[in-house]
Amino acid sequence: MAPYLDTVTSFADVPTTDAGVDTLAFLKASEGLVGLFDLLGSTAFGVVQADLKGNIAKVWARYQETPTLSNTLERLVENEKGEKKRKATEGLLWLLRGLEFTCKALQNAQANASEELAVAFVNAYTLTLKPFHNFVVKGIFSVAMKACPYRVDFFNKLKVDPNGGPSSSDEHLNEVLNKWLTALDNVVTRLQTFYKAGGHDKGF
């Protein structure tokens, strides 16, 4: 084993071409992001993880039903457009919102070395998910973000090999994390632009 980010599919390794974003690689990378919340070490983030997992499952189910029409996320959404219940389209939309929230939070943390995680996550939430949440969900997220661990503890967990191998250096962690976040940001922006251009976000 190795430090966490070296063990999961990076968004930097998700193939993106003119045809679209590779569905399976994207889902694997998204599952890796879900695991980050385990490192935050608070059960308060359970609702965030459950939401991400549920939306990943909706996209995965659609891929299994129509694999030849769903090899890219764009094709998957386009081919579901005429159906009454667009479960995968809705699931992917909310998944993108959750990914954007996590991405912005960690980008905030990377850009402000003296800032605690709770601040980074609150600022990201305000800009991403908050406008789409009702009063109850806002309260749940507020509790979760207050339960963020200290910055140093979280980043130390990112560096540690859970099987006792050598820990990652700060330099290596920053290199891998920044590459991961840049790619994630690019994928999310690309797909959100696709949703808006095609009107795929209407009704959700």
UniProtKB/TrEMBL annotation:
InterPro entries, alphabetically? Answer: GLTP_sf, Glycolipid_transfer_prot_dom
Q: Can you say what this protein is called?
A: Het-c2 protein
What keywords are annotated for this sequence in UniProt?
Transport
Boundaries of each Glycolipid transfer protein domain copy? 21-159
**Species assigned in the record:** Multifurca ochricompacta
Q: Which GO terms describe its cellular component?
A: cytosol; membrane
Per the record, a Pfam family?
GLTP
Q: Which GO terms describe its molecular function?
A: ceramide 1-phosphate binding; ceramide 1-phosphate transfer activity
Which superkingdom does the taxonomy of this entry point to? Answer: Eukaryota
